[in-house]
Write a structure and sequence with these properties.
Blueprint lengths: L10 H13 L7 H13 L4 E5 L2 H10 L8 E5 L4 H8 L4 E5 L21 E4 L12 H10 L2 E5 L7 E2 L2 E2 L6 E5 L12 E5 L2 H11 L22 H12 L1 H19 L5 E2 L7 E2 L5 E5 L7 H10 L5 E2 L8 H5 L9 H9 E4 L7 H20 L1
Parallel strand pairs: 2-3, 2-4, 4-5, 5-8
Antiparallel strand pairs: 1-9, 6-7, 6-11, 8-9, 10-12, 12-14, 13-14
This protein binds pyridoxal-5'-phosphate (PLP).
Length: 373
């Protein structure tokens, strides 16, 4: 089987982790945490980095900085991971959804203005599968309506919007370092910000809101969202290699596109003129004329040794939110279609050219066979 993803762990990761083990700095204190935070923030052009235990709690902590009042709203794409929406509901707010752009699969920024109300507090753009969101219109709306931007750059390490790195485009910018991400720490996440007060709050939330002045005395409730020095050690080693990793992803993207460009009924990822796509995952959307949906396509590819993953199912189609009375009767046709017709192909850090060849042969075979029936 060709796996959908495999992390690449090098000798440097092992060396740094060994240093933690030998020196005993295995919890959330230690030099690698600080260095990882500082270097990642600098890489993205931001002042402060606060490392946390995963991308989901990075989003939850970022939203917590806004002190939402019950019913306050955050506008986000329906086509994303549930972490985005639950970051808002856990903080007492209401996620407000827009549909996906049919080319980039990121949020359709043209739909945002119509969804702004007096309760809107923030916009949460999510860079989908490595392609940046068109930020300019969002910056303009945020300025005009005094809204925060919480960027979810979990899937877009090193991607660029008009020459600026993703993760440096909002007020509170969130990352995941899960094993399938371009930089991984196994499990892990980070929030970047330029505001010192946000950075202080994030540090406090991740560490049970302990007070500096008086230990075990609390005026607020926090969490244990700490990242370990061991994890940061892996992250730092990964960060030292990021340019190679991005090069690999972009090579992979170009290799797939070259081989699949002329396959009828297959929509491939784009790179808008203002974007640097890092092809975190190489997604494809099947035209209905192929006679296949993504689930059946995935099953047939698996029979040929190719692992895939389905696209997100929109937030407005999630039973858990319907039960909460959210998004009732909402329709987002683009997200609904790509959820059914989209999947991503093997896209890992260890993927070889011969594996890409094999995947593309399998894709062509499955589609040819479907056409015959
Ligand atoms: C866009 C996006 N945001 C947030 C997350 C959540 O990150 P984590 O799995 O580290 O909690 C993910 C997935 O991993 C993601 O793809």
């Amino acid at each position: 089987m060709i796996p959908v993803n495999e992390p690449l762990i090098g000798a440097r990761e092992a060396e740094y982790v060994m240093e933690c083990l030998k020196t005993g700095w295995i919890s959330s204190e230690g030099k690698f945490i600080k260095e990882f935070e500082e270097r990642w923030a600098a890489y993205c052009g931001m002042k402060y980095g606060v490392a946390v235990s995963n991308g989901t709690v990075a989003l939850q902590s970022a939203v917590a900085c806004l002190d939402l009042k019950p019913g306050d709203e955050v506008i986000m794409p329906t086509f994303t991971i549930i972490s985005c929406a639950q970051a808002v509901t856990y903080n007492g707010g209401v996620p407000v959804l827009v549909d996906a752009d049919p080319r980039t699969w990121c949020m359709d920024v043209n739909q945002v203005a119509a969804r702004i109300t007096p309760r809107t507090r923030a916009i949460m753009p999510v860079h989908i599968y490595g392609h940046p969101v068109d930020m300019e219109p969002l910056w303009e709306l945020a300025r005009r309506h005094n809204l925060a931007i919480i960027e979810d750059a979990a899937e877009a390490h090193g991607a660029e919007y008009k020459g600026h790195r993703c993760g440096g485009l909002g007020d509170l910018n969130c990352f995941s370092f899960y094993a399938n991400k371009i930089i991984t720490t196994g499990e892990g996440g980070m929030v970047l910000t330029n505001r010192e007060d946000y950075a202080e709050r994030l540090r406090s939330f991740r560490n049970l809101c302990f007070k500096k002045e008086r230990r075990f005395y609390h005026t607020e409730l926090g969490n244990n969202f700490r990242l370990t020095n061991l994890q940061a050690a892996i992250g730092l080693a990964q960060l030292e290699r990021i340019e190679e990793s991005i090069k690999h992803k972009r090579w992979m993207g170009a290799a797939y596109t070259e081989r699949l460009r002329d396959v009828p009924g297959l929509q491939l990822p784009v790179e808008e003129p203002w974007a640097k796509n890092v092809y975190w995952m190489y997604g494809v959307v099947l035209d209905e004329s192929t006679g296949l949906d993504a689930a059946e396509f995935a099953r047939r590819l698996a029979e040929r040794g190719v692992m895939t993953r389905p696209f997100f199912l929109g937030m407005h189609e999630q039973p858990v939110f319907k039960q909460m009375g959210l998004f009732l009767n909402e329709r987002h046709p683009v997200a609904e279609r790509i959820a059914r017709q989209g999947l991503y192909l093997p896209s890992g850090m260890t993927l070889t050219e011969s594996q890409i060849d094999a995947v593309c042969v399998a894709v062509r075979d499955v589609l040819k066979e479907a056409k015959r029936h």
